[in-house]
Amino acid sequence: MQSFISIGRRASWQSIYLGALALAVAALFFWPIFYMIAMSLRTAEDIMDTPLGLPLAPTLDNYRGVLSAMAYWRSIANTIVITVSTTLLVSLLSSLAAYPLARLRGLLSTLIYLFLTLGLTIPLFIGMTPLYILLRDLHLLNTYVGVIIAYTALNLPLGVFFYTSFLKSIPQELEDAAVIDGCNAIQVYWHVILPLLRPITGTIALFVTLSVWNDLVYPLLLLTDESKFTITVAVFRFLGTHNIDPTKLFPASVLGSLPMLILFFVLQRQIVSGISAGAVKG
Questions:
Q1: What pLDDT sits at residue 282?
Q2: Class for domain 71-237, per CATH?
Q3: More confident of the two residues 108 and 223
Q4: Which of 136, 188, 138 has its CA nearest to residue 167?
Q5: What is the pLDDT of residues 234-244, one digit of tens each?
Q6: Cβ proximity of 222 and 104 under 8 Å
């Protein structure tokens, strides 16, 4: 009996330690977000007096000025259009490319797969100059289409890698049964394969969305019209060359991060289940 009691006490202490560790890790991750929100509610005089203090008299005046200065709703709309279009294209094109690569066995398919996934090892800045020249010659600079093409090309290797690994675990008997029923290759892909790709598609969509939404390099490089700037560029414009106004930078950072935070809080269960299903299946 005493041994059972000691085991129970040991298990309870372990759960307490694990809970405390989880709280400490959560506090470590949430502290920058809390600090950003707290600083966005302070006046310039309050920040000058106590740079690391809490907002004693919170104010929303900072947000009112920043909303108009950064053309917030237009920047959000631009970012949503680019992000959603890129995510859909990456999901469709990479799954179409991965389907034959996962089913065909041979030297050619292996070489094509290695060539496509080689893009994962190439640093971003190496391809910037050729990409800029290519889009310039195609007259796609300062256009949504040009930015979407750039992001799609950047994320395609990741999609092909994930989809190919996932498709190899799907039994080919499902496709054979569909062929016997009279389906061609496109119909097999659309009606059989694509529904089975939902878990890994959610995982890829998450990675692509975060990559596109938080990127600053491509919009700065490929866009020159202020009406087409994304939210990261709108926030970046509050960084001065010689000085930084925290009453503008922190509210702009909060507004830029707010859509993604809301999305994660609303869809956290679906996101976690999609990642878990994709990881287990793959």
A1: 44
A2: mainly alpha
A3: 223
A4: 188
A5: 888 877 666 77
A6: no
